[in-house]
Design brief:
The chain is α/β, with parallel strands linked by helices and 482 residues long. The chain folds into 3 domains: 2-135, Alpha-helical ferredoxin (Fumarate Reductase Iron-sulfur Protein, Chain B, domain 2, Orthogonal Bundle), CATH 1.10.1060.10; 150-243 and 404-481, FAD/NAD(P)-binding domain (3-Layer(bba) Sandwich), CATH 3.50.50; 247-398, FAD/NAD(P)-binding domain, CATH 3.50.50.60. It is 35% helix and 16% strand. The strands form 4 sheets. Strands 3-2-1-4-15 form a 5-stranded parallel β-sheet, sandwiched between helices. The protein has a 5-stranded parallel β-sheet with strand order 6-13-7-8-9. Strands 10-11-12 form a 3-stranded antiparallel β-sheet, with no helix packed on it. Helix 3 crosses helix 9 and helix 14 (262-274) crosses helix 16. The longest helix is centred in the last third of the chain and has 23 residues, at 451-473. The two termini are 42 Å apart. The model has no long low-confidence stretch (mean pLDDT 94). Residues 25-136 form the Dihydroprymidine dehydrogenase domain. Keywords: 4Fe-4S, Iron, Iron-sulfur, Metal-binding, Oxidoreductase.
Length: 482
């Protein structure tokens, strides 16, 4: 029976869940595609070739058991498929929605290489976990025997939440501190609802609260408490703040009103979706309605901004990116979605100056060309002489990526070691910072990266923190708790 369910990639074509029309989906912030019906999920999972060396798993940062849960899905064993998917990931339905599968699992699918179209791994992962929530298969966190030790986690994004869950399962008291008024970090405030509806994040947070994890929201380390204060309060700390400092544009006129940071813009939009009062949005400053919008950047954050502007009713939306389509860092699927929704991409272009004085009215830009490869192996953009042009703009959104904030200064912890990029310096084996008992994980260590890597780091650092606390507790730890 099992063999009959699989290896259908020759006779059965690749089929993703149907997307709503671009006109309809541009009217709201709902996810753009529904999940599979059960027969469709089983049929698409059955396309898997069950290859001996599963490159999909190899290229997944979590090394999810992808062929195995695809087989279980194809056989109709959906609860088992969910349980296997959940065994390596604390947020499988979130990864299924926002991972760039075209660059990870699906991009390395063997049948993709053979020309038959990759197995739709992300869509199946989303399906089986949403089905699990619907059917009540998602069980409460299994809290281990109390250890009498407490952990403080600074940052309620994917790395912090993942570590908190594993540490609570081990029996530690876990307190999570976050500067925002809701947990979730960029999952909550940085990613628009059309990619990740907020209820999907909030139900994960609620599950952790039900497990006894204590969330201290609107808590800014350095203001409410110094790092040393938290070190005295807990047996160990994890710093998982992510990176929030926006990269700057150096160009005349960049300080004019109407030129805003991507995260400020996205946070305001997401807060409105929650029903919050957002003065900066309500006064028009962070609302694209009726405006000519130019987004500068080519990553996934830029794609989130252009697609949000469309939904807010912008008069026009252009994306200015200094490289070409083939060399942009964002997901190609997101580019395609944006184009369908009416975004215009201005490739090989970079801003020179912003017009308008006090209030931006336009962007002066240069055409670029790709020169020799830089240190990363990507061809470096250089100005194409004589290729200048102007764009009308009432709102310019800077989406050039994020860097680390000055955490030693913010936290009042000058002994906290950092790299030359400002990220936290950690021991490669233990993930501990320069401060004894203070660990770090996620983007604040590796730089701006993917949610799935943050989840992986949270899983890894929890194991290192557990080993360190066990060693500290020594013989006083009950044998059954070890």
């Amino acid at each position: 029976m099992a063999d009959d369910a699989m290896l259908k990639f020759v006779a059965r074509g690749q089929q993703y869940p149907a997307k709503r029309s671009a006109e309809l989906r541009a009217e709201d912030f709902r996810e753009i595609a529904d999940r599979y019906a059960v027969p469709d999920a089983e049929a698409q999972a059955g396309r898997c070739s069950q290859c001996g060396v599963p490159y999909c798993s190899v290229h997944c940062p979590l090394h999810n058991h992808i062929p195995d849960w695809l087989r279980l899905t194809a056989e109709g064993r959906l609860r088992e498929a969910y349980e296997l998917s959940n065994s390596t990931s604390t947020m499988p339905e979130i990864c299924g929605r926002i991972c760039p599968q075209d660059r990870l699992c699906e991009g390395n699918c063997v049948i993709e290489f053979s020309g038959h179209g990759a197995v739709t791994i992300g869509s199946v992962e989303k399906f089986i976990t949403d089905k699990a929530w619907e059917e009540g298969w998602v069980e409460p966190v299994r809290v281990g025997p109390a250890r009498g030790q407490s952990v403080g986690v600074i940052g309620a994004g994917p790395a912090g939440l993942s570590a908190a869950e594993y540490l609570r399962e081990m029996g530690y008291d876990v307190h999570v501190y976050d500067r925002h008024d809701r947990a979730g970090g960029l999952l909550t405030y940085g990613i628009p609802g059309f990619k990740l509806e907020k209820e999907v994040v909030m139900r994960r947070v609620a599950r952790l609260e039900e497990a006894g994890i204590v969330f201290h929201t609107s808590f800014e380390v350095g203001r409410e408490a110094t790092l040393d204060t938290l070190r005295a309060r807990h047996d160990t700390l994890l710093i998982a703040t992510g990176v929030y400092k926006a990269r700057a544009i150096k160009a005349p006129g960049v300080g004019a009103a109407g030129i805003v940071e991507a995260l400020d813009y996205l946070t305001a939009s997401n807060r409105k979706s929650f029903g919050d009062a957002v003065p900066e949005f309500d006064n028009g400053g962070l609302d694209a309605a009726g405006k000519h919008v130019v987004v500068v950047g080519g990553g996934d954050t830029a794609m989130d901004c252009v697609r949000t502007a469309i939904r807010q009713g912008a008069a026009s939306v252009k994306c200015l990116y200094r490289r070409d389509r083939a060399n942009m860092p964002g997901s190609q699927r997101e580019v395609a979605n944006a184009e369908e929704e009416g975004v215009e991409f201005v490739w090989l272009s970079a801003p020179d100056a912003f017009d308008g004085g006090d209030k931006v009215t336009g962007v002066r830009a240069s055409k670029m060309r790709l020169g020799a490869p830089d240190a990363s192996g990507r061809r470096a953009p250089e100005v194409d002489p004589g290729g200048g042009f102007q764009l009308q703009a009432d709102l310019v959104i800077k989406a050039l990526g994020f860097e680390a904030e000055d955490l030693p200064k913010l936290f009042g912890a000058e002994g906290l070691g950092v790299t030359r990029w400002g990220t936290l310096r950690t021991d490669g084996k233990t993930m501990m910072t320069s401060l004894d008992g203070v660990f770090a994980a996620g983007d604040i260590v590796r730089g701006a990266s993917l949610v799935v890597w943050a989840i992986r780091d949270g899983r890894d650092v929890a194991a290192h923190m557990h080993a360190w606390m066990k060693a500290r507790a020594g013989a006083s730890v009950p044998a059954q708790a070890a």
